[in-house]
Design a protein that fits this description.
122 residues; 5 helices; single chain; 79% helix; globular
C-alpha cells in the first residue's frame, strides 16, 4: 500500500513538472500558461489556501485544486506543447541526484539553525 502511494506521488510530481515546463513554453496560450504557473506554484508551495492543520478541509483543498488543475491543463494545453514538456521533464528526472549536494544543503541548514540557536541563546 505504501508503494502505491509513493508511485502515485511520483506520478503527480512528474505531472506538475510537465505542467511547469508547459507553462514556460512560448507556444502555449497565455491564459493556460498563467493557470499552469498557478497550479505548479500551488502544488510546490508550502502555503495553502486552507492550512493543513484544519481537519479535513486543510487536506481537501490540496486533493481538489492540484489534480483538477492538472487535469484541465493536460486536456486544454496543445498536444505539441505537452509533448515537448514531457521530454524536458523526462530529461530532468533522469539526471543523477548528488548525495554530496544534498549533504551540502543539509549542512548549510544545520549551520543556519545552529547560528540562530546561538543568537537566541545569547
Amino acid at each position: 500500500m505504501i508503494g502505491a502511494f509513493r508511485q502515485a506521488a511520483r506520478a503527480l510530481k512528474a505531472q506538475v513538472l510537465v505542467i511547469y515546463f508547459a507553462a514556460r513554453d512560448p507556444a502555449a496560450p497565455f491564459a493556460l500558461r498563467a493557470l499552469a504557473l498557478f497550479v505548479a506554484a500551488y502544488a510546490l508551495s508550502p502555503i495553502d489556501l486552507i492550512p493543513d492543520f484544519i481537519p479535513v478541509l486543510g487536506l481537501l483543498d490540496d486533493l481538489l485544486i492540484v489534480p483538477l488543475g492538472l487535469w484541465l491543463l493536460l486536456r486544454w494545453m496543445p498536444a505539441d506543447v505537452i509533448a515537448r514538456a514531457r521530454l524536458r521533464a523526462a530529461r530532468v528526472t533522469e539526471r543523477l541526484t548528488s548525495r554530496w549536494a544534498a549533504a551540502a544543503v543539509v549542512g548549510v541548514w544545520l549551520v543556519g539553525l545552529a547560528l540562530c540557536a546561538w543568537w537566541l541563546y545569547r
